[in-house]
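ERR on first pass: missing label on line 2. Operator R.T. fixed the label and resubmitted. Corrected input:
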Amino acid sequence: MKGRKLWPAVALVLLVLASALPFYWAVLASFTPEARLFRGPSLVPGELVLEHYRALFTQRNFWIPIRNSLIVAGTTTAFCVAVGALCAYALARLEFRGKLPLLGFILAVGMFPQISVVSPLYMLLRFLGLINTYPGLILPYLTFAMPLTVWLLVGFFRQLPAELEEAAMVDGASRLRAFGEVIIPLALPGLATTAILTFVYSWNEFLFALSFTLGPERQTVPVAIALFRGMYQVPWGQILAAAVIATAPVTLLVLAFQRRIVQGLTAGAVKG
Amino acid sequence: MASVRLEGVQKTYPNGHVAAKGLDLDVADGEFMVLVGPSGCGKSTALRMVAGLETPTGGRILIGDRDVTAVPPQDRDIAMVFQTYALYPHMTVRENLAFGLRMRGASREVIDQRVTEAARALALDAVLDRKPAQLSGGQRQRVALGRAIVREPKVFLFDEPLSNLDAKLRVETRAELARLHRRLGATIVYVTHDQEEAMTLGSRVAVMRDGLLQQVAPPMEMYRRPANRFVAEFVGSPAMNFLPGSIVSQTPGAVNHRNTLGIRPHDVTLVPRGAGTLDALVDVVEPRGSELLVYLRLGTDGSGPELRAITPPETVVEAEKVVGVRLDPARLHWFEAETGRRI
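pass 2 clean. output:
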């Protein structure tokens, strides 16, 4: 009996260690002096310094890619959730012809390999004069983020009992008002989850950001980090410090919204 | 308050299911109309069409003198109590009660006054600031009721509002609903699958089956003169007995059709063997406190059809004994064997 219960625990601990180790090492290395990193990195913290972080902001103007990433990922997320919520609500609740093919089409668009659309998108953006601009990144990001948002939200909306909005409409609310006053507050955990996922996807995106920007003034964090690599050396300390900074907003977001995500807001809506 | 009128209302779903095959129903101003029938008979669909939550595929619906067939629910001035109550879980009881008034742009004073009144009438004062999740089943039911009352709508619609309550609470709430109807003089359309609820609450009862109205009548009239075999069987508990039979005409040469004879268990009297219309073998005796429910099989050897009788509790009757059965001729119901229509 005891052995059978022990195994999953051991496996779990090993799995957690395996996932956490690279991150731990990255954090540790980002605080370790460059010289020591090349002499032979150690898992045990030794002398800790802030030079890599200082260099990021003094030598490399790392706040520019951060600002770019925040603007691009933030706008994409806001737009996706606002438009996607309306779209998903219609798909979840209204009956209209061609609904299933439309859902399938949205899914198909979301599945498209990015690399296959890079060239046509580049030509389109160049024609529109949007290369190396924020809209030039946000618009392509919508192509993969919007299907994701809509699909996630359709699922969340379908879970809410239809009687709630029916009650709201009988109570005198228009469909849009019922959506705003009853559905949106109840779907908040779903909206938060969706927003975080969309933000993370956009924040981490690399291929479009690399292809559609020309210089450091519009590059996002992943592109900037990839281009740290010089001709003669790889500044590992700075790369890892940048990676830690790039991970921070995502981690903070998830921690901040954790309760919202987990909370079952619909408890007590109907008999239960 | 207002009347409700359905004129040839039809509903066919896109998947081909027909929920209403031409309903004609008049609900008078201030009337308590109960739609009753087995599940799937179309009664809930009919109610949802009156609410505007479903669009009829044919016919017209009028509230008062106004044709509302194409009017969205929010502009119909109706209130509805749902089977699941559909309380807004993110709002307090107070906010739930106020929602409908707020949507209609009532002033703060009016909202406060009406919510306080309704809360007092429904004994919800103490829980006004709680969320639905913190309420008992009975309290939730009363909030759902209160949400309808504060609006003072033209028509109240109820969709099986008692089916989630336990037996004791259901009987109490039933009486509360009857009192509420008397006090408000409201027009009510009420859907249930429970014939007892229908009989006790309705000013009139409309029995539905397969998307068609079978009979619309006051409860006692429906009980005494059911329009067909389906209504006869559905209304009254225990259900009416049916025996094959025929009306034999005294006129020479007349054709005798096959018919079905119906008699309610309450109209069957047990007498000593040989003293009644027929003899029967006692199968099971169920004491019900105020009365006995006796299951009989016709014939001295019990080979005939089954017959149920309700007798006074002091009746001496034992299983496996033969007794006489007297059927009150004034209380016999005759139905055509094929169509089930009342003769």
